Amino acid sequence: MRSGLVTFLFLLIAFILQTTFFAHMFTLLAHGTGISDFAFQNFNFPFIAVIYLSLNRGRSSALIWAVIVGMLANAFGLAWGETTSFGVISIALIGSFLKGRVMLSTATSVMILVALFTVLEALFHLVLGKMVHGNEVLYWGQFGLVFRHVVLQTMVAPIVFYVLKGLDHWTGTMNERRAFPLTNF
Fold first, then answer.
1. Residues 183, 105: contact at Cβ < 8 Å?
2. pLDDT digits (tens, 9 = 90+) for 28-47
């Protein structure tokens, strides 16, 4: 119970930071540098948390957390909410199948895994966005946006994994549900 409450509070705080502080920070960065593309970027802490949870919890728990993240994304008014939900749930399902088969012993290995999952989620997002919303998405035109998104997520992924690992340790979840070693991390 305590673990679920702590995880939910982490996700809620992550969404609040994503939609307020970091959104404002990237807008200021775009205006300050004159590079307007920064205004459309953001850290996606909840998505990285779903990757962590899918590798450290049971499959049903990971899917429940992915649904909660999808609902919170819709509640916070993030773009293309239903496609975000599908992408996050798909990533949670894939991550839960990898549980116990992936060893993340360094920050670099975490960054590589998050980069792969971020590219997959971006593809889900673009393809589903085209199907659901009828957007004529030019995939090659989106490459720069996806690349920047992947770089941003991989930069903060080790930090998010470290914080969630600490929260798991604090709530006692680490000893119960450890699926793969996060040694030396």
1. yes
2. 888 888 877 777 788 889 99
